[in-house]
User: What shape does this take?
Amino acid sequence: MEKIQMKNPIVELDGDEMTRVIWKWIKDELILPYVDLKVEYYDLGLPARDETDDRITVDAANAIKQYGVGVKCATITPNEKRMEEYKLKKMWKSPNATIRAILDGTVFRTPILIESIKPVVRTWKKPITIARHAYGDVYKGTEFRIPGKGKAELLFTAEDGSEMRDTIYDFESPGVLQGIYNKDSSISSFAHSCFRYALNSKQNLWFSAKDTISKKYDGTFRVIFEKIYEDNYRRNFEDEGITYFYTLIDDAVARVMRSEGGFIWACKNYDGDVMSDMISTAFGSLAMMTSVLVSPDGNYEFEAAHGTVTRHYYRYLNGEETSTNPTAMIFAWTGALAKRGEMDNIPELQEFAKKLEKATLDTLEEGICTKDLADLYEGVTSHPVSTKNFLREIQRQLM
Ligand code: NAP
Ligand code: MG
Assistant: This one.
């Protein structure tokens, strides 16, 4: 069989531990036999990041900007324990944070569904995609613990020295205080990413916030979304038969629970953090979830939402066979291959990505799965196997 040829490369960001091991298996068994794979390879494994003073992470992010499509393996975010374990020069920052800061994007996370594993919420028939704004708010907040009596004020000093000032609270006893911010430019790029993603995937877009209480802060989010929709997207949405609507976050939660799914739910940073864990757990597992970072200028980085699965890795190092779920990693690759095929107009590459996804889902539908899913099946007897055997089953389906 002739291998599918590519034009431009995919930027490949290798990672750590169990996911690094499985990453290579996926390429060797499921991609390289069928695709003449063109990649710009960056080793984001912790030893290489340490060796290059983390320059490699920045280079990889810039390469995604250059080529438009990247695929990333899970990576260790160093802490004290890792400093010791890897004898690091420095506690390097989270690669995801570094990459997000360079690409400036929105993270879209969608559960991967199969027939025989039912969501906890009975009405859900189709996946719900969370679009999480990944900038500012409480993640960049400034906080005080207030020791006792005193006045807290909000003060803004403009470039020309003029001031805006308001009393937050006259403390009569100890308490807490927090200052948070966001920027119109970041909110706008968040909005553009969401509208484009909705058009691309032909799904309705919901956006929720709390502008009845937070009239200026959340109100600004609502107004920016509305204006960008009216000025740039309404016509395209109507042509595609999809809708955009804004509602209060509490109303959105109630509607989500009664919905069939099949839409995109855009959330502010904190709401998205909380809601994406709820959605993924209710649909099954973190290893059954796609994740893609979309930047406002149209660059895509595909990844799995889970970490490097350290516990399984130590077992693997002891010579044990593990049953780690590779589904989200396979879908990171298929997402990148399909996007590359779309951008470079290579329909065979898009077709192949679809076939590989179908082969993975068909394998799971037969009950052949990894251990994490074994107890979730309904109506089908599950046969948990090792990761290697799971990949072989997928390859059998592919042929
Ligand atoms: P984790 O790697 O996601 O694993 C936590 C637990 O979840 C595992 O021990 C395993 O449970 C289960 N699990 C996760 N993915 C699985 C899969 N594909 N198949 C089967 N089970 C899976 O999170 P962590 O242990 O907190 O973090 C490990 C390392 O990953 C850390 O160094 C962290 O910095 C890094 N991390 C990276 C990313 C990223 O690059 N995107 C994200 C999160 C964490 P059982 O052991 O019970 O089987
Ligand atoms: Mg979280």
Summary: Residues 234 and 260 are 24 Å apart (CA to CA). The pocket of magnesium ion (ligand 2) is lined by residues 273, 277 (CB under 6 Å). The longest helix spans residues 217-240. The chain has 13 helices and 18 strands.
